[in-house]
Amino acid sequence: MTAPDITTRVPENPRRGGPRRRGERSRLASVGLHLTLLGAALIAVFPPFWLLVTSFKPKSDTFTLSLLSGFTLDNYDHVVNDTEFLTWFGNSVLIVLVTTVIGVLISATTGYALSRFRFPGMRPLMWTLLITQMFPMAVLIVPLYNLMSRYGLLNQPVALVVTYLTIAVPFCAWMMKGFFDTIPVSIDESGRVDGLSPFGTFWRLVMPLARPGLAVTGFYTFVTAWAEVAYATAFMTGEENLTLAGGLQTFVNQHTQDWHLMTAAAVLIAVPATLVFGYAQRHLQSGLTAGATKS
């Protein structure tokens, strides 16, 4: 008695005329996928593209659908020369640089300690780093404002530096902990054998290997301080004290609606962030992947 034929029939591949391999998409599915990706890309690109186009239009053409029919650079000239934009830029650069340097240092040392050492209170500290990410920023504005007012830190750059560190450090420390977990402990042991102190091992051997994670940490801290609006407008008043995020709101408010100027200022603000992203992007994928999968 012969055994029944149980061979599974493989569907024909219309492109080659032969059987289609498992997991291979049909031509119709490929076309649908590419059209979906193209539509998503257009939706993502259109807002910044239209922002750029509007920044070159005169005020009378701000809400028209024409593409650069009245091309002008007056918006940029007015923003740079007739407003406090350069002052806002200097304030933002100072706050961002200090926040990024301190944030990367604290996050790296905290992540390294959580990865390499076992000490009392380690688990509560790790849970604290996670729990602090659960609170929305709007909930913390009032208590932080009261603290800054009590210690006389309002309209002082240090107020925003401390505030941004409370936002960036918990997430970055947890991410750096996951990244340090991917670096073999044998490297630390070889450093101690060679006579290095724990900090020397961290600084001279481990930190150079952690460049992708440091790039992600630095970029996240930079974006947190560069693009934040709520705290910048609550803690800083007076045009000479504003950052770029706060200064941007002076163009469109209850008294003025200079959208053409706001778009020009927004483009200028986006340029440094784009340059930083372009510099750090080669490390972002590996750093984020390591920090996400090894925690």
TrEMBL record:
Residues 1-24 are annotated as: Disordered. The keyword Glycosyltransferase does not apply. The chain crosses the membrane at residues 28-50, 93-114, 126-145, 157-176, 214-234, 259-280. Coiled coil: none annotated. Pfam families: BPD_transp_1. Keywords: Cell membrane, Membrane, Sugar transport, Transmembrane, Transmembrane helix, Transport. It is found in: Cell membrane. Its main location: membrane. InterPro entries: BP-dep_ABC_trans_perm, MetI-like, MetI-like_sf. The keyword Cell membrane applies. Residues 89-280 form the ABC transmembrane type-1 domain. It is a multi-pass membrane protein. Belongs to the binding-protein-dependent transport system permease family. MalFG subfamily. PANTHER family: MALTOSE TRANSPORT SYSTEM PERMEASE-RELATED, MALTOSE_MALTODEXTRIN TRANSPORT SYSTEM PERMEASE PROTEIN MALG. This is Carbohydrate ABC transporter permease. It comes from Streptomyces millisiae.
